[in-house]
Structures are given as structure tokens and as C-alpha cells.
Design brief:
Layout: E1 8-12, H1 17-33, E2 36-43, H2 54-81, E3 85-92, H3 95-105, E4 110-114, H4 120-126, H5 129-136, E5 141-144, H6 148-156
Parallel strand pairs: 1-2, 1-4, 2-3, 4-5
Helix pairs in contact: 3-5
Length: 157
């Protein structure tokens, strides 16, 4: 039987209710094991923009990055108040690839992430970041499926 002490657990956050739900699972696991939570937010770069829109796009990216940074700092502070050690990082790239790279490079023991409950054509068109991480990463992944009201609220937002 494998026993893990002081695990390093990665929780990708996109600030949706679904990812916050996964964070609740992570807190329940990491706290009694005295582990470390790594919070990761991945910003997807714009697909393309013209030279005319370059400076506007750069300004927008900087604003989004700053908002994400503030939200991540708040999460780390909240976790510290709960007695949980956490760190945070923001990366730019393709979400599934960035998550898997982060986990592999830092030797994560576990990734806990949410599904967003997409089905049918929407799942086919948008894909599943969680599924792609699961197929790419070298550590276990706990996929948390949130309640239906969470996924419906995220779709409306």
C-alpha cells in the first residue's frame, strides 16, 4: 500500500464555480496530509489580431493577467487562513498542455480538477481539458464532476 505524506497537489483554476468545487476537494485531501497546494491559472493567448489591434490586445492581456494575479493571491491568502500552505502561478498557453507541463516539471503527486459537464456537440467542439490532461500527464488525476446547477450557472455566465 502506498502512503503519501506531504503531497504536492495541483489545482488548475479558471475561476468558475466548477473549479472552485474541485478546490474544495483538494483542501479536504491536502490539509490532513500536511501537503502543499499549487494553484495554476492558464491564460490562453489570443488566436490572432491585426497590427491595428496589437496594442489594444496587449493592454487587454495585461489587464486579464492582473485580474488573475489578484484572484490567485486572494485564494492563497484564504487558504493560509484555513491552515493550508499554497502557492500560485499564472501561465500563458494551451490549458491542457500547460497544466501537464507544470505537473510533470514540478513532480506533482496529484492533480485535482473539475469537469465542466459538457455533453454532446458542445463537448465535441470544445473538447475536454480534463480528459486531455488525463491522457498527457504522468501523475494521477482526480476528476471532480460538480453539481448540475454549477455547470448551468457557468454556461449562463
Amino acid at each position: 500500500m502506498t502512503t503519501i505524506h506531504n503531497p504536492k497537489i495541483l489545482v488548475p483554476l479558471d475561476f468558475s464555480r466548477c473549479s472552485e468545487y474541485a478546490l474544495e476537494y483538494a483542501k479536504a485531501i491536502v490539509k490532513p496530509l500536511h501537503g502543499l497546494l499549487h494553484l495554476l491559472h492558464v491564460l490562453e493567448p489570443p488566436v490572432s489580431y491585426s497590427e491595428w489591434g496589437y496594442s489594444f490586445a496587449q493592454e487587454g492581456i495585461a489587464n486579464v493577467h492582473k485580474q488573475a494575479e489578484t484572484a490567485m493571491e486572494k485564494e492563497v491568502e484564504t487558504l493560509a487562513k484555513e491552515g493550508i500552505t499554497a502557492s500560485s502561478e499564472i501561465m500563458t498557453g494551451t490549458p491542457y498542455y500547460s497544466i501537464a507541463s507544470y505537473a510533470d516539471e514540478r513532480g506533482m503527486d496529484l492533480i485535482i480538477m473539475s469537469t465542466h459537464g459538457r455533453r454532446g456537440v458542445q463537448r465535441f467542439l470544445m473538447g475536454s481539458t480534463t480528459e486531455r490532461v488525463l491522457r498527457t500527464v504522468h501523475c494521477p488525476v482526480l476528476s471532480v464532476h460538480p453539481p448540475q446547477e454549477f455547470t448551468e450557472a457557468d454556461k449562463e455566465a
